């Protein structure tokens, strides 16, 4: 029998793109449709948990990152491998896996997250150890992938503590917005890369958690003296800021970051997630680059594989990398509408997740 939501597929082509973007087509359109892998380097996952990212509601609201129609949203999935392409070397049928699906770049519906089965590339998949549940696993993919591009490509930190270009202990990094998905992953990657002095901003309720992730000092970004407090913390630690990952890149964060950096000598690099605003000038000694997290699915598959395939399972097992805190919305695929609305209104230190029953 045809699954109920699959019947909707027939309705899709006559509907205009603007109607789709207004949200008439529910996420989870292909409920029950099991696609095929069609590249040798892909895995097919039977999903157990899905997480929502800001880009999911933004795609629908603004029509961005939408290469083709019909459209299924979503990228972050955790599930069981049910098929592997002939070139897949690191995974087998039956493995528990987390991944970031690249439907928003490829336009292939089977690579979207908000459905029961998702095809994912081998490079952006990681085996999930037993100590990590589905809901926690689903929170990791896209936030971590974006932090990987930010920390290792844009800021140029080494993947291994003692590798080439190892980090000088006096050099510090600032993560602005360390309670969020990308920010919390960035703090942990910086620590794993050997940055001894990671500084961060977050709401006070998250300070302890962010310290546990690896920050030596965390400052409340709402404080009127936030810049002075960060500079004082860095000086207390005998460090200077050389790298910044602005994991918010909205409102006054660019101006605050520039203010902080003006207090330290030398060349500095900033990785930012949203476009640099015209009204904030870039100082000559600051190299600022927008992170393109989508590069984990293409040009920087190598970096993605180095983290997702080769390191993440062990990091999760040992607790060296801790997933975001999941906030489960009930209802499975039907809960995604509410999940998207919650995220659009804004979350604090949580990743919105749905779980799928089988
Ligand atoms: N360029 C790319 O490739 C790319 C990739 C992924 C995401 N993004 C974008 O990057 C942004 C972050 O994504 P995300 O998934 O990490 O979001 P998220 O997890 O939803 O971020 C939520 C967190 O943002 C923090 N926050 C909000 N305003 C802040 C401020 N002024 N200063 C410090 N922290 C602040 C909050 O911290 P508290 O709870 O401490 O208040 C909250 O915990 C989004 O706009 C997203 O669209 C871009």
TrEMBL record:
This is Chaperonin 10-like protein. GO terms for molecular function: oxidoreductase activity, acting on NAD(P)H. Signal peptide: none annotated. It comes from the Eukaryota. It comes from Staphylotrichum tortipilum. Keywords: Oxidoreductase. Residues 28-354 form the Enoyl reductase (ER) domain. Belongs to the zinc-containing alcohol dehydrogenase family. The keyword Oxidoreductase applies. CDD domains: enoyl_reductase_like.
């Amino acid at each position: 029998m045809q699954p109920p939501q699959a019947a909707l597929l027939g309705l899709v082509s006559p509907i205009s793109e603007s109607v789709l973007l207004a949200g008439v087509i529910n996420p989870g359109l292909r409920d029950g449709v099991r696609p095929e892998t069609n590249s040798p380097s892909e895995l097919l996952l039977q999903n157990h948990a899905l997480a929502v990212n800001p880009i999911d509601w933004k795609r629908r609201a603004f029509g961005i990152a939408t290469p083709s129609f019909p459209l299924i949203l979503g990228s972050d999935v955790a599930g069981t491998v049910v098929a592997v392409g002939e070139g897949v070397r690191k995974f087998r049928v039956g493995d528990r896996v987390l991944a970031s699906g690249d439907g928003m770049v490829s336009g292939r519906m089977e690579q979207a997250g908000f459905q029961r089965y998702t095809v994912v590339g081998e490079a952006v998949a990681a085996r999930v150890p037993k100590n990590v549940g589905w809901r926690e696993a689903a929170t990791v993919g896209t936030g971590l992938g974006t932090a990987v591009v930010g920390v290792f490509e844009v800021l140029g930190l080494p993947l291994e503590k003692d590798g080439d270009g190892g980090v000088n202990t006096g050099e510090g990094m600032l993560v602005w917005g360390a309670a969020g998905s990308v920010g919390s992953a960035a703090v942990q990657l910086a620590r794993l890369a050997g940055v001894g002095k990671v500084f961060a901003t977050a709401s006070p309720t998250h300070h302890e958690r962010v310290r546990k992730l690896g920050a030596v000092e965390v400052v409340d970004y709402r404080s009127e003296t936030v810049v002075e407090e960060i500079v004082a913390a860095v000086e207390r630690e005998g460090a200077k800021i050389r790298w910044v990952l602005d994991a918010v890149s909205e409102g006054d964060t660019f101006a605050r970051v520039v203010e902080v950096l003006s207090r330290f000598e030398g060349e500095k690099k900033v990785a930012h997630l949203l476009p640099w605003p015209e009204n904030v000038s870039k100082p000559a000694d600051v190299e600022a680059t927008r992170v393109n997290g989508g590069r984990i699915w293409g040009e920087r598959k190598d970096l993605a594989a180095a983290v997702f395939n080769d390191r993440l399972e062990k990091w999760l097992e040992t607790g060296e990398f801790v997933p975001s805190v999941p906030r489960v919305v009930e209802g499975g695929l039907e809960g995604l509408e509410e999940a998207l609305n919650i995220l659009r209104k804004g979350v604090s230190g949580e990743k919105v997740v749905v779980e799928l029953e089988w």
